[in-house]
Automatic annotation (TrEMBL):
Protein name (database record): ACB domain-containing protein
Pfam families, sorted: ACBP, PhyH, TubC_N
GO molecular-function term, one example from the UniProt record: fatty-acyl-CoA binding
Record InterPro entries: Acyl-CoA-binding_protein (IPR000582), Acyl-CoA-binding_sf (IPR035984), FERM/acyl-CoA-bd_prot_sf (IPR014352), Phytyl_CoA_dOase-like (IPR008775), TubC_N (IPR041464), TubC_N_sf (IPR044894)
Domain ACB as annotated: residue spans: 366-451
Length: 453
């Protein structure tokens, strides 16, 4: 029985519940006091009292956000649900402004690509922008998302991962894929599982919530699903196709960020002709909820316009997230350094304490200012420094992130030598001092007016 959904449906009908010294009390419209309902309340009394103590937000619902029984059945049968109205254009504007002001659009492999930077991981990636940018974190903590996930049977949820999908004009298909334990974009590495499900929670729902930031259409690359495939585990074969035909090869950034020089990539043994396929267009601000175990893909962008979306992954707190980190291995299966990664408890409680769970990142004021100044320079909001000033600023960045230079001296006539020499001169300077000096220098650079893309 989905107890959360059962209780929330009673609340919509006018029921009220409260805990009085470990006694379950309720008030309800007389016509709703059926024998069947009363028997169910009696059977699940201890569980309801626990929810009242530990997850009171479940009882504070917005009826407009409650899923219907038909919608829940749709999700259970097909593995996905949507599009659902969620956010107004003004509500997603803060996220859009954040992303557009913290990205650049260079040409890679002869096609334009939207490039982002993660200020927690200190590397270029579309992943986990919510760890630094509050508007993104707040979007995915919203009851407009979380309450609906509660309706699907998960009262306790961690927000553990986000990703941006900028499908620009000419970007190709993302091929069919599903996820159980691995989120690899090329080949599966058994020692690098992103998730480990305890035996008792092996069927825990691994939700993805996909938010359209631009209108998503069949022409510009909307999502599509193979209905019912969340009930089947398809075989994945490593090194089965050339890298240029890999699952995510249609997104241009994949070549430079994720492929890491691999010549071959893995694929699933899956024939879409054996399944009912459904494309799901969405308006900006709408959401699509799906199980990561459901086979999904996205169509190519055949228009001249961008299709931008952002997704978030949610999981039960008992599931181990990046378990290899506890062995001191902080490089995940996609070459991201997740040492400072954390999950956010967005609903219910966490009794398991097997993951790093925080309300927000633990950067101090100096570190936050340093990252903001880095973003100004990275995303060309200030005039790019030249010559000695360029080497000084970049050497301070290297010192702030990596500490004293440990690299071998390059040849003096090489392009790398001036930066190496400038960095070497900073030896002995603390990371904190380097951050302060870097921020001071970047703040002094002339500002530029940047056109949004």
């Amino acid at each position: 029985m989905n107890l959360t959904n059962f209780l929330q449906r009673l609340i919509i009908q006018g029921w009220k519940f409260w805990n009085d010294k470990d006694k379950l009390l309720y008030d309800a419209p007389k016509e709703k006091l059926t024998l069947d309902t009363l028997n169910q309340l009696k059977e699940y009394k201890s569980d309801i009292l626990r929810l009242l103590r530990e997850s009171p937000e479940i009882f504070q619902i917005d009826s407009a956000l409650t899923l219907t029984s038909e919608q829940i059945e749709h999700f259970n049968n097909k593995g996905w649900l949507g599009p659902l109205d969620a956010f107004s254009l003004s509500e997603i504007r803060a996220v859009m402004d954040c992303l557009e002001s913290h990205s650049v659009v260079p040409r890679i492999h002869k096609r334009s690509t939207m490039v982002f930077h993660n200020n927690i991981y200190n590397q270029s990636t579309s992943r986990d922008q919510h760890l630094f940018h509050r508007p993104i974190a707040e979007l995915f903590k919203s009851p407009k998302i979380v309450q609906r996930l509660n309706n699907l049977g998960e009262p306790d949820l961690l927000l553990w991962r986000t990703n941006l999908f900028a499908k620009l004009a000419g970007h190709d298909t993302i091929s069919w894929h599903q996820v159980f334990e691995h989120y690899s974009t090329t080949n599966i590495h058994e020692a690098k599982q992103s998730l480990i499900f305890p035996e008792k929670d092996k069927d825990a729902l691994n939700f993805t919530v996909w938010v359209a930031l631009d209108d998503s259409t069949i022409d510009n690359g909307c999502l599509q699903f193979a209905n019912g495939t969340h009930k089947v585990r398809f075989e994945f074969v490593n090194n089965s196709v050339p890298a240029s035909e890999g699952i995510f090869a249609g997104i241009n950034i994949h070549h430079s960020l994720y492929q890491q020089g691999n010549q071959y990539s893995g694929t699933f043994i899956f024939d879409e002709n054996d399944w009912e396929i459904e494309a799901v267009p969405a308006k900006a601000g709408q959401i699509i909820i799906f199980s990561e175990r459901c086979m999904h893909s996205s169509l190519p962008n055949q228009t001249n316009n961008r299709r931008l979306a952002i997704n978030a992954r949610y999981i039960r707190p008992s599931v181990h997230i990046y378990p290899h980190r506890w062995k001191g291995d902080f490089i995940d299966e996609n070459n991201h350094n997740i040492e400072k990664q954390f999950s956010i408890l967005v609903s219910g409680k966490d009794d398991y304490k097997v993951n790093v769970v925080q309300d927000w990142n633990d950067l101090n004021e100096v570190e936050v200012e340093f990252q903001k100044m880095f973003n100004l320079l990275k995303f060309m909001h200030v005039k790019t420094p030249m010559n000695d000033e360029f080497y000084k600023i970049n050497s301070l960045y290297k010192q702030a992130i990596e500490g004293d230079c440990q690299e071998s001296q390059p040849k003096k006539d090489s392009a790398k030598y001036p930066l190496w020499e400038a960095w070497k001169r900073k030896s002995g300077m603390s990371k904190l001092v380097a951050m302060k000096e870097y921020s001071k220098l970047v703040a002094s650079l002339p500002r530029k007016v940047v056109r949004k893309h």
